[in-house]
Design brief:
Number of domains: 2
CATH architecture of the largest domain: Alpha-Beta Barrel
Shape: globular
Number of helices: 12
Strand content: 15-25%
Structural class: alpha/beta
Distance between the termini: 50 Å
Helix content: 25-40%
């Protein structure tokens, strides 16, 4: 079972001032998870989590995580700007981007951010644009497939990210001649893994590469960034990741590979988004229509504009009908939004309690890649974002869009 962090009574009070649909985040859960993350890697003195801004780009969320010791992982100019406006600058920012415009490198360097180069050609761009900083990271792509035991997790060889091993060695040597003094290694090989083996397996690969870099270039890395990829269980029947076990697994690889090679002072970084935020966000929506044709449909006042993952990936998000948690799931529904697209469905053939018009539905695990992926198709407007504070109060941390927002960037249109 997945239990919502808001009750029917709380939602009925919230909607008096904030109508559905809205995204709501659990401050207490976010803080506790960040502390557990830090505990899992406390064995590494230089450890830092750089929260992936792309997952939940809201200043209130970034500030909460900053208070818990997290930095930000940015991939665009706007994300860099948001971090700066939150007071997050310098080495508290990791700039990991690809196909990067030169001006974004320049701005990242101005902020003092850690710059992670995705491609060998970026060395020339960086040198010509703003110069190579003293601390620099390079992103590695091992090619082929990435497997854990006998299970293929992903296909790095088909991914557009990172450098080959040969390019990586050449990059470090060239960057050293251009003034770089501290070096980091970064890789992202799989997305949303629900296994405690992913990070330790990835760490083993990167730690071995770090030893090889030292042997072949004479450069001792200062940092290794395991990036993201640690996921959550979206379905209620699967056990989620144990971050304490994951941290212990990485420590074991660290002691096995890096320490004997004289690299025991390397700092470990992570760039998690989904693991840090997804379980601590709900999309709350109301049943407003029902339709009885070849299937039973429940129409809600949210749509794929508010949560794109089910429409884009066929992703599963658990649904709780508030106030009916104890009732039998003996009705089969497609839960739909109102877009002019048949994939605008939050659930297909889902067993749920009987849903009546006016019931509030909680769509779980929307705290990451939920609001952030929203768009305006059909002229639909993005919802508000709310925070359930630790003291039980609720505050708005982003207002809902209005038609005026939608029209604001148009030029040469009718006078209103």
């Amino acid at each position: 079972m997945k239990t919502p962090f808001v009750t029917k009574a709380q939602v009925e009070e919230i909607v008096k001032t904030h109508p559905t649909p809205f995204h709501i985040y659990d401050e207490k859960g976010i803080r506790e998870n960040a502390r557990k993350m830090r505990e899992a890697f406390s064995w590494n003195p230089g450890f830092k989590e750089y929260f992936a801004v792309k997952a939940t780009p809201n200043p209130t969320i970034l500030k909460i995580l900053a208070e818990e010791g997290c930095g930000t992982d940015c991939s665009s100019m706007t994300e860099l700007m948001m971090s700066e406006r939150c007071g997050i600058t310098g080495s508290n920012i990791m700039f990991s981007s690809n196909d990067t415009p030169p001006e974004e490198f320049a701005f990242a360097k101005k902020l003092g951010a850690n710059i992670n180069l995705d491609d060998y050609t970026h060395i020339d761009v960086l040198e010509k644009t703003c110069g190579v900083p003293e601390t620099i990271f390079c992103r590695y792509n091992p090619g082929g497939t990435f497997s854990i035991s006998t299970d293929i997790m992903d296909n790095p060889g088909e991914a557009k990210y990172g450098m080959t091993k040969e390019q990586l060695f050449d990059a470090y040597k060239r960057l050293s001649t251009l003034g770089a003094k501290k070096f980091g290694l970064h890789a992202f090989l799989a997305s949303n893994t629900v296994t405690n083996e992913y990070y330790p397996t990835l760490a083993g690969i990167l730690f071995s590469v770090a030893v090889e870099i030292k042997e072949k270039t004479g450069i001792s890395l200062s940092y290794i960034n395991l990036s993201g990829g640690v996921g959550i269980s979206y379905t209620p029947d699967k056990e989620g990741n144990d971050i304490l076990a994951i941290g212990a697994g990485v420590k074991e690889k660290f002691n096995e590979i890096l320490v004997p090679a004289g690299l025991g002072d390397i700092s470990i970084f992570t760039e998690l988004g989904r693991f840090m935020l997804a379980p601590y966000g709900h999309l709350v929506t109301k049943a407003i229509n029902e339709k009885h044709i070849y299937r039973e449909y429940i129409g809600v006042d949210a749509c794929a504009v508010n949560l794109m993952r089910p429409a884009m990936y066929g992703a599963y998000h658990h649904i709780t009908v508030l106030g009916k948690e104890g009732e039998p799931c003996d009705h089969t529904y497609d839960v739909t939004g109102s877009l002019c697209e048949n994939n605008d469905k939050f659930a297909i053939n889902r067993q749920l309690p009987k849903i009546d018009m006016g019931d509030y539905l909680v769509i779980h695990d929307t705290g990451a890649h939920g609001f952030a992926m929203g768009y305006n198709y059909n002229g639909k407007l993005k919802s508000a974002e709310l925070l359930l504070c630790e003291d039980g109060s609720v505050k708005q941390i982003r207002r809902a869009e209005t038609p005026e927002d939608y029209f604001a960037t148009l030029e040469g249109y009718w006078d209103v």
